User: Which sequence fits this backbone?
């Protein structure tokens, strides 16, 4: 009879002493993780509100870096909280941690082969943040490993493991940091909108160049476009020549990330100016290329 009662008394004693602590550890870890997330949201909101050190129209590089660091620190802190809570719970279950060293080593080696990509993602994310390759709010073009298509979008989140982008169509693209082969930052320091204007080969090239120059001067003097432009858009001249038409290139240096807005505005102004002068614009009026900012 004594042998049958003893195990029940042990369970009862464990339920009274260790079980409440386990519940407290789990609840405490959840609440602490939520508190860290709340603090992080407040810090990030303050960083966004201050927006100091750069132009009011665009985030400064220091601000983008602080935003990315805040996201990474939050992610690492929450992971550490849950890891510590797990260790404390395991101890309360009476499992000796010293006896788990050898099995954990074998399991670690086995998981190491299976989790190579996770380790690769974390290491790549660490160097991505430390080297300030890009940060929150940057417009980037990423070439993932094994994919011929490149992804372009605005960085919404950067952690040690993934980069989350929002494309122009509103799509959310999540790319593991270890799978990024090539990243082009389109909003670092300054950007450049490159517009190739198709002009018929029979048109007066000198007159077309003058019209494009006037469009650039008028755009730089405009109250809405002036804050986005770093200098007067310049006409580079004839870029290519075919039998039916030739391409006259216009280049505009802009604030980081605003090259797309400037490109659209300049194309509309060029089309109206050519129509007013009786010049014909070919069907291919578009932004030929948007170059990344100088690093």
Assistant:
């Amino acid at each position: 009879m004594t042998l049958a009662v003893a195990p029940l008394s042990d369970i009862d004693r464990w339920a009274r002493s260790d079980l409440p602590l386990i519940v407290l550890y789990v609840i405490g870890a959840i609440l602490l993780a939520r508190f860290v997330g709340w603090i992080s949201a407040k810090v990030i909101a303050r960083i966004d509100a201050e927006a100091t050190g750069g132009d009011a129209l665009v985030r400064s590089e220091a601000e983008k870096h602080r935003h990315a660091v805040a996201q990474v620190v939050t992610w690492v802190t929450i992971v550490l909280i849950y890891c510590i809570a797990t260790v404390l719970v395991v101890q309360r279950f009476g499992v000796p941690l010293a006896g788990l060293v050898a099995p954990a080593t074998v399991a670690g080696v086995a998981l190491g082969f299976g989790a190579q990509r996770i380790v690769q993602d974390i290491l790549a994310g660490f160097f991505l943040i430390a080297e300030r390759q890009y940060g929150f709010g940057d417009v980037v073009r990423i070439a993932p490993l094994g994919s011929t298509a490149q992804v372009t979008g605005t960085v919404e989140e950067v952690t040690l493991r993934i980069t989350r982008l929002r494309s122009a169509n509103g799509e959310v693209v999540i790319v593991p940091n270890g799978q990024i082969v090539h990243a082009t930052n389109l909003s670092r320091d300054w950007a450049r909108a490159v517009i190739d204007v198709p002009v018929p080969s029979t048109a007066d090239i000198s007159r077309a160049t003058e019209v494009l120059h006037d469009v650039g001067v008028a755009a730089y003097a405009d109250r809405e476009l002036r804050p986005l432009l770093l200098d007067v858009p310049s006409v580079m001249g004839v870029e290519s020549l075919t039998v039916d038409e030739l391409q006259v290139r216009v280049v505009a240096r802009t604030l980081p990330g605003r090259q797309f807005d400037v490109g659209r505005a300049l194309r509309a102004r060029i089309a109206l100016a050519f129509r007013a002068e009786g010049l014909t614009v070919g069907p291919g009026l578009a932004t030929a290329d948007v170059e990344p900012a100088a690093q």
In short: Residues 2-95 form one domain. The radius of gyration is 29 Å.
